[in-house]
């Protein structure tokens, strides 16, 4: 568990630095959006290309990844249903809430969990690939349609297809499929830019906490609690049930359940802040799940770790 604690401490430390930067006036008001935009349009695409260009696309179809991906879709659908029946949000907020329910932090928290609890970092890479190549483009395409484009969804989808995150993901996947070597002279600056993506997103997230406490009345707490409960409780439970029902080995059941219990990825906040949709709801959900996931992961490791 030491590695997991280190992962959580790392994330919270950078978020705290962002909060202090806003608290002491280093960054004021809407200035944090500059950092968020640089992360979205420059650093994150570089990171995604660097991660995907030498990946193995075939690992997407492993049983564990199919189970966790299906679990994500199920809890996302449950959020949509709850949004329709209970707290009625618009399309953008519903999409982002559903994404919060199933889009896991497979990078800066998933990696230490994979290394120190699952014993192999390779368990997380396939889910990262699925989220980047399948889930993220779908979410961004829907968010594009909410911008009020009068020429219809086709134009909005075309704009989504030109999104730098999607373009970088597709380019990285094509390079991996073809086996095209990338010269170090080209790859080195891309990797350097990519290394700045996660700190930028976390800093921007921390800055957003200044001036407004999390989970304040009137900020959509019902949606936050629903998305958070689905993420840290329902998704691992669904993954465990599906993995068991499909006859996966005890270790595969353990891996699928642990991965499903990871908190909501900060990337979702990056999307919300860039499109200026449901920022408070997403911010509070990321904040809540980041804390709530630790005891849940510890419980799963204790209950299933001996399998």
UniProtKB/TrEMBL annotation:
Q: Which UniProt keywords apply?
A: Cell membrane, Membrane, Transmembrane, Transmembrane helix, Transport
Q: Does the keyword Cell membrane apply?
A: yes
Question: Which compartment or compartments is the protein found in?
Answer: Membrane
Give the main localization category. Answer: membrane
Does Cell membrane appear among the keywords?
Answer: yes
Membrane topology per record: Multi-pass membrane protein
Segments spanning the bilayer are 6-22, 34-53, 59-81, 93-117, 123-143, 164-182, 188-210, 222-242, 254-273, 285-304
UniProt cross-references to Pfam families, sorted A to Z? Mem_trans
| PANTHER family, A to Z | AUXIN EFFLUX CARRIER FAMILY PROTEIN, SLR1864 PROTEIN
This protein is called what? AEC family transporter
Which organism encodes this protein?
Answer: Leucobacter chromiireducens subsp. chromiireducens
């Amino acid at each position: 568990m030491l590695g997991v604690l280190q992962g959580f401490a790392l994330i919270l430390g950078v978020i705290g630095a962002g909060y202090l930067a806003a608290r002491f006036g280093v960054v004021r008001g809407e200035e944090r959006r500059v950092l968020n935009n640089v992360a979205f349009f420059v650093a994150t695409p570089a990171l995604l290309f660097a991660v995907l260009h030498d990946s193995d696309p075939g690992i997407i179809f492993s049983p564990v990844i199919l189970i966790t991906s299906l679990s994500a879709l199920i809890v996302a659908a449950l959020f949509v249903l709850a949004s329709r029946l209970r707290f009625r949000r618009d399309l953008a907020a519903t999409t982002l809430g559903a994404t919060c329910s199933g889009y896991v932090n497979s990078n800066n928290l998933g990696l230490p969990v994979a290394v120190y609890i699952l014993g192999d970092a390779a368990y997380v890479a396939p889910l990262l690939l699925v989220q980047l190549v399948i889930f993220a483009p779908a979410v961004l395409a829907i968010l594009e349609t909410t911008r009020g484009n009068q020429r219809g969804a086709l134009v909005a989808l075309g704009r989504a297809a030109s999104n730098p995150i999607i373009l970088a993901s597709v380019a990285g996947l094509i390079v991996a499929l073809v086996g095209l070597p990338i010269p170090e002279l080209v790859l080195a600056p891309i990797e350097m830019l990519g290394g700045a993506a996660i700190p930028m997103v976390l800093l921007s997230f921390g800055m957003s906490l200044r001036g407004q406490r999390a989970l304040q009345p009137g900020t959509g707490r019902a949606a936050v609690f629903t998305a958070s409960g689905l993420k840290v409780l329902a998704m691992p439970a669904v993954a465990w049930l599906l993995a068991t029902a499909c006859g996966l080995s005890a270790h595969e059941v353990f891996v699928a359940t642990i991965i499903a219990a990871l908190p909501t990825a900060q990337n979702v906040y990056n999307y919300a802040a860039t499109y200026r949709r449901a920022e408070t709801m997403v911010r509070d959900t990321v904040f809540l799940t980041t804390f709530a996931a630790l005891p849940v992961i510890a419980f799963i490791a204790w209950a299933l770790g001996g399998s």
